[in-house]
Amino acid sequence: MAFQKEALDLVLVPSGLVLMFSYHLFLLYRCLHLPHTTVIGYEKNDMRAWVDKVMQVEKKDVGVALSVISANTSAATFLSTVSLTLSSLIGAWLGNSPSNVFVSELIYGDTRTYTMSIKYISLLVCFLLAFLCFLESARCFVHANYLISMPDSNIPTASVEVQVLRGGDFWAVGLRALYFAINLLLWFFGPIPMFICSMVMVLLLYYQDTNSLPLHKHRSRKTDSV
């Protein structure tokens, strides 16, 4: 029985996706149970200390803190706009023109019409997920901005901390959706580039997400007053 190149998509594409999902489940376990071993946990530790220090200063001196929040809001808004724009372009491409750009004989894989539709829809889902996550991230940072700048308030530090950390979580998930989108984008050039990209992506993400530094013990309010 002759080997059909369409069968590569049935083997390599699911293998690449399983590889990516397995790594992120492993990362989620480390974030929940061993946060000090991840960059995400290291950053959250600094965020908690930052919020604690910001809530101690006078309201007239929170300008720098508001600038930091505004910068995060602008970044999240920019990436949400980019994700929505790409989603719109993919939707227009999928709905209006059955293009032959990615059905060349040079692409070793399944280039049938329904497979191409699956590729477009999968990529569209990733960009829409990224858009929603970045939008929620911006919403959380805007809420934190209101809480920090509210005059003569007795808002607990924990309320601001929740919004800042939640905004960071949505930001991280949005970036992960873009990482998956990169893999799915290479699927248009065949299952082999997509699988290779999955392996390289996991290695790079493991290097990026691993933290070997001990968590910094920030000084508390009592320590500062001594």
Characteristic key phrases:
75% helix; elongated; mainly alpha; disordered C terminus; single chain; 226 residues
Summarize the structure.
By secondary structure, the chain is mainly α. The protein has helices spanning 7-33, 39-54, 63-96, 113-149, 157-187, 191-209, 221-225.
- The low-pLDDT segments are 222-226
Query: What amount of the residues lies in strands?
Result: under 5%
Instruction: Give the C-alpha Rg.
Output: 22 Å
Number of helices: 7
Label the structural class.
mainly alpha
Shape: elongated
N to C succession of SSEs? HHHHHHH
Main sheet specs: none
> What is the helix fraction of residues, given as a range?
over 70%
Q: Give the averaged pLDDT, no decimals.
A: 85
Distance between the termini: 81 Å
Count all strands and give the number. Answer: 0
Overview of this structure, please?
This protein is 75% helix and 0% strand. It has helices at 7-33, 39-54, 63-96, 113-149, 157-187, 191-209, 221-225. α2 (39-54) packs antiparallel against α5 and α4 packs antiparallel against α5. The model is unreliable at 222-226 (pLDDT under 50).
